[in-house]
Amino acid sequence: MNILSKIVLGLLAILLGWFILVQTVGRLVRKLYPFPMPAVAAQWLDFPMRRWITDPAVVLERAGVRSGMRVLELGPGPGFFTPEAARRVGPRGRLACVDVAPPLIGKLRAKVRRLGLDNVEAGVGDACALPFDEETFDLIFLNSVLGEIPDRVGALREAYRVLKPGGTLSVTEFLFVLRGGLSGRDH
Question: pTM for the whole thing?
Answer without folding.
Answer: 0.76
